[in-house]
Amino acid sequence: MLLKVRDLTKSFGKLVAVNKLNFDVNEGEIIAIIGPNGAGKTTTFNLITGHLKPDTGSIEFQGKNIAGLKPYKVCRAGVARTFQIVRFFPNLTVFEHVLLGAISRAGLRAKREELTEEVDNILEFLNMEDKRNVLAKNLTIPDKKRVELASALALKPKLLLLDELMAGLNPAEVDECVNLLKKINKDLGITMIVVEHVMRAVMKLCERIIVLHYGNKLAEGTPEEIAKNKKVIEAYLGEGVEYA
Amino acid sequence: MKTIEDRIKTVPPTKLIPLIIFAILMIIVPVFASGYILFVAVLALLYASLAASYDLLFGYTGQLSFCHGAFYGIGAYTAAILTVRFGFTFWEALIPTCLLVGVLATIIGYPALRLRGAYFAVTTFFLAHFIYLILLNEVELTGGPLGFRGINPPEPIGFISFDSLSTYYYLVVVFFIIVVLFLYTLVNSNLGLILISIREDEVLAESMGINTAVYKLLAFVIGAVIAGLAGAFFAHFFRLLHPTTFSWLLSEMVVIITLVGGAGTLIGPIFGAGIVTFLLEFLRFAPELRYVGWAAALIVILIFEPKGLIGLLERVRAQIKKKG
Q1: DSSP result, B179-220
Q2: Mapped to the 3 state alphabet, what secondary structure does B53-90 carry?
Q3: Contact of B310 with B265, CB cutoff 8 Å
Q4: Which end of chain B, N or C, is surrounded by fewer C-beta atoms within 10 Å?
């Protein structure tokens, strides 16, 4: 078991954003957390990565409780993430952006040449060599997300949390992204939790889906099970679940 | 802004020539310049070291602080008190001065840097004033409003004595070059990129495994120690210390110099220091008014070229390239 979440609870005032959430993530898995807006998906991510402190509950990562640790410590433990609203270093080039991830992992004394090679490999892996010397602020949104992903990969995480990585992509780009994530999962052995609204991608990508609704876990299962689940369809009321 | 690799690539052909010219100019200044010009040049070099070290904190790490001048003052008084009262030589006094300024900066910076943005800036502003009040009122230690007297020039090294203006000038040039080389190496190192990432997006840097609190403190302390050293050189150059020299106005000047020159460029604040120091000297006939004029100039520059003089220079260069 890579990640073990038990009784995780977080309230903002009277609003219970995440309520006694339990779930496990096995090594090598790709799981999705889905749910309508305000279901507590991003809050769950923020609790895991230390951007929020849980009220109660535990988060065990590789057998170590990481609940309430500062974000940089969670990252060093091996959990990397991307943000729902893309975050990037505006005035760094793509190369420097990813290099920072490599430096963060390898330490201050790491040799530039070795890190440079590593960064270039990651950029090649993500087909970004041509953007190498472009400032992050001058990239398109999908490319900014790609840089965020590349920087996360440079951290060589065990677990990667992707918060709506595919929002705003067209269907062709979504398919490309799904394949890329599968490749990252297989080739680099990185376990993933994705929060995603693009059902098409979720159905293709994930082995297991957790559905949140008003902070509670509504259902958990394989994509097929979730697609047939009545409670899930009700929760999405009107929106309806797209069948892949 | 150029990438690290670009910087390294472009250093030999384009940047070395102006640097060499600048270095030769600095070396031959005492030959043709009057004593007065030389005197102002020493001050300009000390301000340049001060502004360059502040750029590490503000321009690179993105922390707007208003107490950099206070560390200059602490350094000046510490070195002076050590040499005059405790019989240290100037050279011996440098190390304990560094240590004391470093420790004080850590004690001040650790809680202050927990605040962000404007809250941090305001806190440092009052810290600067607090230190000024100590310098003013601890009469037994600092001489208070009467000033601190009896400071001697640095002891000679071998046959080089530092009691003439031109030899002191060369001493400060050496100090300045060491400071700039140190800072240049630092900002282009792995550590430099980490500091820049904090400026660019602190939340992202933190979530990428950077202990931002420690690195911000590191930049604060390194900047303060360099400022303190510059203060020690000032004390043994001017040989009379007065609290008003180190009032909040000095910290303000450092911020202005950095902004005018171009924050986050290292070279910008250095030129900024040169221009500001000489300008202020030439405007001495209107001691109060010059700050008003200066403020107006600052506003104009920041409206039309927020990246300061370096930004202006780059824009002009781009224009020329376009036409040529």
Answers
A1: HHHHHHHHHTSHHHHHHHHHHH-HHHHHHTT--HHHHHHHHH
A2: HHHHHHHHCCCCCCCHHHHHHHHHHHHHHHHHHCCCCH
A3: yes
A4: C
What would the mean pLDDT of B110-132 be, rounded to a whole number?
Answer: 94
Please report, to the nearest 10 degrees, the dihedral formed by the alpha carbons of residues B94, B95, B99, B101 taken in order.
Answer: 10
Reading the block at residue B42, the tokens are 């020493």
Task: Determine the average pLDDT of the residues in B268-280.
Answer: 89
Confidence of residue B1 (pLDDT cuts 50, 70, 90): very low
Q: What is the model's pTM?
A: 0.91
Q: Is A88 on the interface with B (CB under 8 A)?
A: yes
Residues from chain A contacting residue B219 (CB–CB below 8 Å): none
Which domains are seen in chain B, by residue range?
4-323 (1.10.3470)
- Within 8 A of B191 by CB-CB distance, chain A residues are 108
Contacts of A62 (CB under 8 A, 6+ apart): A2, A77, A78, A158
At residue A122, the 3 state secondary structure works out as: helix
**Beta strand A15-25 pairing with A3-12:** antiparallel
From the centroid of its chain, how far is CA B89? 24
CB proximity A70 to B under 8 Å: yes
